[in-house]
Amino acid sequence: DIQMTQSPSILSASVGDRVTITCRASQSISSWLAWYQQKPGKAPMYLIYKASGLESGVPSRFSGSGSGTEFTLTISSLQPDDFATYYCQQYHSYPYTFGQGTKLDIK
Amino acid sequence: EVQLVQSGAEVKKPGESLKISCKGSGYRFTSYWIGWVRQMPGKGLEWMGIIYPGDSDRSVYSLSFQGQVTMSADKSTSTAYLQWRSLKASDTAIYYCARRSSSSESHAFDIWGQGTTVTVSS
Prior knowledge:
By secondary structure, chain A is an all-beta fold. Chain A contains no helices and 10 strands. Chain B is globular, with a radius of gyration of 14 Å.
C-alpha cells in the first residue's frame, strides 16, 4: 500500500494567516492526489483533485500543488470557517489511502 | 440534488451481524463507483473498499478489510450496502459511503453520505 504522511499533525493559526499543509507519498503518485476538509461531526468535503484542481464551489483561497511524492495545500488567508481537519488522499493505486490528517485550529 | 443518504445509527453486541445502507439519488447510480470509509473514534479516515453498482462483481477491498466486511449493491433500489457477519468491539466507528468521481482527472470521492455510527459493546 502507498503510505501518505501529512505534516504537521496540528497547526495553530489566526484568521488572515497564510498556511501550508504538506503531504508526502511513499512512492510516486504522479498528480493523483485529492484534498478534503472535515469539520467535527460532519462528513469530509472534497476540495482539490489532481493535486491542484479546485473543485467547483471551493473558495479560491484554497490551492494545491505538487507532483510525484510531495504535495501541499495552501490557504492564502484563513477564514473562521476554515478551522477544520484536512486530509490528503492518493488515487494512484488501490487502496486509495488517506493521510493521517492535519488539524487546523485557532491560535 | 445529488446525494447519498445512509441508514441510521446502530448499537450491536459483539458477535452480532449488521448490514448498513447507502442510498443514492439525483444521478445514475449504476454509473459511479461507491466506496466505504471508516473513521474510528477520534481518528482519521481509512479507505475500506469500493464497488461498482453497475456490476457488483467489480469490487476492490483494502487488504486490511478483506474478509472482515462485505460490500454489495442493489441496482433496483440504488442502494449500496456494507455488512459484517460477526461484529467486534473494534468495529466501533463511523462508516461513510462516498461516490467516486467519474472525471478522467479524479478518482476521488466527490459526494459523501452523512455517515452511519456503529457502536459494538457488550
